[in-house]
């Protein structure tokens, strides 16, 4: 039999699906995959339900419903002061992962170098490789996840076509500093490179910090595309509604890739997301505040059990060290021990690296009901106490 595509043949199933399956098999509390355990606002869901029954359910425009593209443009102006033409500079996609694929396939050609920052969301590497791109990886390192300017400069060259940046960053929960973003912008301008900006956690930023898109920095307006997610913004991850904002000359080829990937997205969901984006500031403030409280609840409990909890400025995730807790030598061993023996599923951070990954950290998801967080902490407490008794 002839070989299949080597980019995807033999590739591991995504770590999120793997850990979710293990959680189900062992009746574990699933703190691995990053999705809330409650659905988003009822008023948004009601708009979707009404539209499903009352509106046409045929193909909407390929670029997205005009009212959602207008809502995305309005949100860019409202939150970031960006003037966006909804007709030419906004594209609606079936989720942010599709948006990433569209952007990479449209902007990257075989042999182009693409700068990636590790640890990274796990779809980035296979998508870049499928486009024929050459990954040039730069690492941010725990515990502070700072970006080394010299390493970043060294990754750029005359062959650099793009940088793919996730800010706020999954899995590190890092918010890039102004200085880091200014450096990235200057290097993009110097090397005539594009920036593909995965900004799906833009509204899940804590402790009074505010997200600033790379597109808002000098020289980046027409060389950046920024990706947003209704799933993250409205806690409706199963809807898979994303949107791309960028200069018209970039959106045009990206839309051509989109037309051969999904072509369009369910119209009732688009209508509901357009409604959601118009929600008042209190909604967005409450969303971040509620998640920040959950972060603090889980972090306090994990620290009391002996986990070392790294800083978390955004997203759904806490990264923790597990040294001395008897969970194993590596993060994979630790996660297997936790799901099988403690009844709690986490994710090994090494899964977010291409190779030579550190193995000292695991990641817990805190966008869960308080009672779920408490149950997970109670199970971990029992396990840690028993492990300590055995080693005494």
Give me a quick take on this structure.
The protein has 392 residues and is of the alpha/beta class. It contains 13 helices and 14 strands. The chain has an 8-stranded mixed sheet, with helices on both faces. Strands 10-11-14-13 form a 4-stranded antiparallel sheet.
Largest sheet: 8 strands, mixed
If you average the pLDDT, what whole number results?
Answer: 95
Structural class: alpha/beta
Question: What's the total count of β strands?
Answer: 14
Helix content: 40-55%
What's the CATH class of the largest domain, please?
A: Alpha Beta
Q: Report the span from N to C terminus.
A: 57 Å
**Form type:** globular
Q: How many domains, as an integer?
A: 2
pLDDT < 50 stretches: none
CATH topology of the largest domain: Aspartate Aminotransferase, domain 2
Instruction: Please compute the radius of gyration using only Cα atoms.
Output: 21 Å
């Amino acid at each position: 039999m002839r070989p299949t595509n080597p980019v995807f043949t033999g590739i591991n199933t995504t770590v999120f699906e793997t850990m979710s399956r293990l959680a189900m098999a062992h009746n574990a509390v699933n703190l691995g995959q990053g999705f809330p355990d409650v659905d988003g606002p009822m008023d948004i869901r009601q708009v979707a339900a009404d539209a499903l029954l009352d509106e046409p359910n045929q193909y909407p425009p390929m670029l997205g419903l005009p009212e959602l593209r207008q809502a995305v443009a309005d949100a860019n102006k409202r939150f970031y002061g960006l003037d966006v033409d909804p007709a030419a500079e906004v594209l609606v996609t079936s989720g942010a992962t599709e948006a990433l694929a569209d952007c990479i396939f449209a902007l990257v050609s075989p042999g182009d170098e693409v700068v990636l920052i590790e640890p990274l969301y796990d779809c980035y590497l296979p998508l870049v490789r499928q486009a024929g791109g050459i990954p040039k990886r730069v690492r941010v390192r725990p515990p502070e996840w700072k970006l080394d300017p010299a390493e970043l400069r060294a990754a750029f060259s005359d062959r650099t076509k793009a940088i793919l940046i996730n800010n706020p960053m999954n899995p590190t929960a890092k918010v890039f500093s102004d200085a880091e973003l200014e450096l990235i912008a200057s290097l993009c301008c110097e090397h005539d490179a594009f920036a593909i900006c995965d900004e799906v956690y833009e509204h899940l930023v804590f402790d009074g910090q505010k997200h600033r898109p790379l597109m808002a920095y000098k020289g980046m307006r027409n060389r950046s595309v920024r990706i947003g997610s209704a799933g993250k913004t409205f806690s409706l991850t199963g809807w898979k509604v994303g949107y791309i904002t960028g200069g018209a000359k970039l959106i045009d080829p990206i839309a051509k890739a989109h037309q051969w990937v999904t072509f369009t997205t369910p119209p009732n969901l688009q209508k509901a997301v357009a409604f959601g984006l118009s929600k008042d500031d209190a909604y967005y403030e409450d969303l971040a505040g509620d998640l920040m409280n959950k972060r603090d609840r889980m972090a306090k409990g994990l620290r009391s059990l002996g986990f070392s909890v790294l800083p978390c400025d955004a997203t759904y995730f806490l990264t923790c060290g597990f040294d001395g807790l008897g969970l194993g030598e590596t993060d994979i061993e630790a996660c297997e021990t936790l799901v099988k023996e403690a009844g709690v599923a986490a994710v090994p951070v090494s899964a977010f690296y291409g190779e030579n990954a550190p193995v000292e950290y695991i990641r817990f998801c805190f966008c869960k009901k308080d009672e779920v967080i408490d149950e997970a902490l109670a199970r971990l407490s029992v396990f840690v106490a028993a492990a300590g008794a055995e080693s005494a």
